Amino acid sequence: MRSQLVKVEKMEVVSQLAASISHEIRNPLTVVKGFIQLLKTPSLSQETRDRYIQIALDEINRAEAIINDYLTFAKPASNKVERLMVNEELQKVVQMLAPMAHMNSIEIVKNLQPGAIVGNIQYFQQCFLNLIKNSIEAMPNGGTLTISSRLHGNHVIITIKDTGVGMTTEQVNRFGEPYFSTKDTGTGLGTMVAVKTIQAMQGTLHIDSEVNKGTTLTITFPKATN
Ligand code: ADP
Ligand code: MG
Q: Phi and psi dihedrals of 183, rounded to 5?
């Protein structure tokens, strides 16, 4: 009875996230529509015209960034909760982000020990894509990204460590808050998706960060029971 209840709650968080996406991209779409309508005005100067086109392009880029924060791995109707190996899924995510890391002169150090947890694979991947992407973005002048997973008692512990810009206490406190971003074209949605996913999978997140030194995220999940 109890496990049933937990499962329903988990599914709810996942489908809530899927529902948010249409809400989130409606604003940029409305702006794009408005400026394209304005572009139909015959008397516009070339300068104004260029400005409107740039606003529309910026908003399209924003919509794309929002979709990337939510739905990189989305497949239709995938609320499936299953046993997953964190080391294998982290390996896939790191592989996806390796070109971005290399472009920024970032060295990747991996220490992935096998560990099984229960959750939705796509959301797990999205969660760690968002977190690791932030770590890479925190090191614009290069650095070291260290990703590890290990078993500890009944838990699987994952750490993501960067030698980047770090966060102030205020920034740490706002981690996961929707729309909080310190980046010029940030969405402030990547950490929100990650934090909700960790909660949905009964996990915990610990942040250890120092400005100009770097950030270590420690994510702990209950180990799968069989
Ligand atoms: P975005 O990346 O679009 O800004 P996120 O929700 O992914 O939105 O991140 C929110 C904010 O959290 C970032 O703008 C940044 O200030 C902070 N942040 C997250 N991860 C890190 C990190 N590893 N190092 C430094 N700051 C971080
Ligand atoms: Mg981000």
A: -100, 150
